[in-house]
Amino acid sequence: MTAPRTAGTPRAEARTAPRSAAPVPGAGRRLDQVAPLAPNAWLRFDVVARMLPEAAVTALEIGCGGGGFGARLATRYDYLGIEPDRVCAAVARDRLHAIGRGEVQNTAAEFLPDRQFDLVCAFEVLEHIENDRAALHAWARLVRPGGWLLLSVPAGQDRYGPWDELVGHLRRYEPSGLAELLTEAGFAHVRTRRYGFPLGYALEPARNVVARRRLARSPGQTITERTAASGRQLQPSAGLAGALSRWATAPFRFAQRAFPGAGTGLVAAARMPSDQG
Fold first, then answer.
1. 8 Å CB contact between 267 and 51
2. CATH superfamily, region 20-271
3. What is the pLDDT of residues 69-80, one digit of tens each?
């Protein structure tokens, strides 16, 4: 396990890094090859990409998994990802090395960096944590005044099923409940948006079928073990499969934009007030 890195403040870094959320030109095609996304992840990223703050330079991703989102964030920001699972961290590190940007550390969530960031992200992480309120307060301390928190969680507790159990989810969220938690943690200007209509509803039963079979084969697996392995589930291979996943989901990514209140997943963005200490 490596210790978190330390660095200068975001303000100091801003003098040398461009203050822009524009991706590196030509990065999209290469990202599909080296850091493919599963169909549901494409639905999620379509919303995430449109909620990314432009006035940010530094970004931290908590629980970066295999680096699918991390590789894309690294084309826009000075990126650091932390991932407790050794296998996923190694995959994420290789992907960032392939694009020549960003850093990944294989470290546990309690060993958070001792610096603040313009943007802190946590995609499909909060639902794994028993004390989600405490986690959000800890993450809030990593966001500089005026900075942003961007996260995603599964939506709708009534949809909790075998897939949630398999990957170590403790709960799912409603938009109002998540917004309340973010406000309690000190954030303002909270925005939430659901995603995944209609494709997410079709994918969910298929994932639950897969989950029932895998749960039957590993009845003694702990929730900690399931959480650690969650980033490896149903991941597409690089190359052609990655490109096909992107293009096959394109119509559904556009369709879901017309239904921001429907879907199986939830993305939230919130800003830390500038007058915070």
1. yes
2. Vaccinia Virus protein VP39 (3.40.50.150)
3. 999 999 999 999
